[in-house]
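Progress against Task 2.4 (sequence-to-structure conversion) is shown through the following example record, which the project officer requested during the mid-term review.
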Amino acid sequence: MFEKRNILIVSKHKKEEVISPFFAKYFNSNCFVSNHFDTDILGTFCGEIDRKEDPISTLRKKCIMGLENSSFDIAIGSEGSFGSHPMIFFAAFSEEYMMIYDKKNQIEIIAKESTTNTNFNEKVVSDIEELLIFAKEAKFPSHGLILKSIEGETIIKKGIIELNELKSAFNELKKINKDILVLTDMRAMFNPTRMKILKKLTLKLIKKIKSTCKKCNYPGFDVAEVKKGLPCEACNLPTDSTLSYINKCNNCLYEEIQWFPNKKKYEDPMYCNFCNP
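Structure tokens generated for the chain above:
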């Protein structure tokens, strides 16, 4: 279904550098970059434009809008969210989604990667010493930084990857601001760590595409539901650990149960709410 297709990659941040080679390798596809659609109109990382919808809805809209007024009928896009980890105190967290949207066959397949492997951070700094400490922790200069004014007119300096440029931008903003907000630049072309995650996500998407339904051969046969209840090794009561996956076809709705996906039939009593409350 995707073999030898011309695919539009909807990105202005050089994501094609990690996406194109794999789709060429596994599907003999020719990948092209959208140059008539500005993805920033759907939201930016440093707040000039807020994302109005959830990541998947935004991603779907990105693909559909990218295909408008083009000769392509299939698109790939990705969307990232960054913030604090919901469970691990003080840890940064990223969620990346990637979608292939096939307008011709009315198919969309989505892959997701969640990780703490991110340099995402921001801080209000008042002097150059604070700024340089932040920069080192953020993996600068291999990873870009953004400076943003806090008071008065909003001034944003993006894509800073050189020390002299960083100091110059900081001194410029200090003339009108006592404190300055410094942020990691999370755009893919300024963030090698994010690029590595996108590479991993591309392979995950391809694996999902190649996973087809046993009944109708429709692509994207994958986990639709996770069932808890792996029994405790000591008391045999159900725990919160994964017992099975429910794999489902989005076309014919065929389901298949995958028991013990984590390769174990019992859970350690230390994770049991009865044995170790």
